[in-house]
Amino acid sequence: MGKSRNPRRRRAAPETVVENVDGGRAELVPDRERARAWTLLIDGAPQSHVDLDDPAHLSFEYQRRLGHVVDLLAPPGRPVRAVHLGGGAFTLARYVAATRPRSTQQVVERDAALVQLVRRELPLDPNARIRVRSADARAGLAKVPDGWADLVVADVFSGARTPAHLTSAEFLDDVRRALAPGGVYAANLADGPPLAHLRGQIATAAARFAELALVADPAVLRGRRFGNAVLVASDRPLPVAELTRRAACDPHPGRVEHGKALTDLAGGAAPVTDGAAVASPAPPPSVFG
Residue 185 belongs to what H/E stretch? Predict the structure, then answer.
């Protein structure tokens, strides 16, 4: 038998993985610039970006802002206990595991088929202490022991909208119950003009937490376009100055609002209750076009 003339074959480029999950049509699209990085889309809407070779790399601007919250939560490298409501591709849980080894984390993701897809195609580090539970976010949060979490992150979207039952003061009451004293809550919100949803979420968090900050693109805060905003809340003083510096230095610079400016942004909105809660607005088609 003759030897192959090309014993070192060039590895074939990865192909997009498409699969129907509970929440719609999931696509895992390979990143052409990073060898083992992927973007998760659900019904065409980008959800997560993961680099398996470098889980500390955060590509999406809102994920970078959540990463800043993680970085400022405790001294560098100190393990934390984190609850992630909404799993996607487990991007932030991977980030915490990479930057704070020995952290203990719980991920609650309602879409069981999506969890199976991500576990199969984008496996978690077996040494990471990450437990994934397929359940509704609020039901999963209810099972977290009192005072267990240093950090609770809410990043839940169904059909590109945050479900109504995850926008209320009663929901935040359970977040507070699960948080340890001085713990931090961070939520990825999405809204556009006239920012009614965002104003209501600021007012709701202000009714439950002593300290708030909001990180977003200035154009979003001015009501000029639809986009993401990261709301951060705690009963301890937040590292606003350092968060402001880091957000301003991002590839897509963000602005941090807090104190009176954030109260003014809320514009007198009333806190949201379970009885009046509605889902966040759907993004315009041009957002993902």
Answer: strand 179-191
| DSSP-derived pairing of the beta strands 24-30 and 37-42 | antiparallel
Angle (nearest 5°) at CA 144 between 140 and 146: 145
Cβ-based neighbours of 79, under 8 Å, separated by 6 or more: 100, 101, 102, 103, 104
Across-strand partners of 195?
none
For residues 16-40, average pLDDT: 97
User: Token pair of 266, please?
Assistant: 């809320």
Instruction: Say how far apart CA 181 and CA 147 lie, in whole Å.
Output: 7
Q: Exposed, middle or buried, 249 (CB in 10 Å: 0-12/13-18/19+)? A: exposed
Give the number of other Cβ atoms within 10 Å of residue 233's Cβ: 26
179-191 and 227-234 strand pairing: antiparallel
SS3 annotation, 218-275: HHHHCCCCCEEEEEEEECCCCCHHHHHHHHHCCCCCCEEEEHHHHHHHHCCCCCCCCC
Give how far Cα 71 sits from Cα of 56, 88, 102, 281, Å: 11, 21, 15, 30
Considering Cα of 163, then 168, then 173, then 176, what sign does the dihedral take?
positive
Token duo for residue 281: 């607005």
The two tokens of residue 206 are 């202000």
pLDDT digits (tens, 9 = 90+) for 153-205: 999 998 889 999 999 999 999 999 999 999 999 999 999 999 999 999 999 99
| pLDDT over 80 at 5, yes or no | no
- What would the two tokens of residue 24 be? 């719609």
Q: Are 28 and 38 in contact (CB under 8 A)?
A: yes
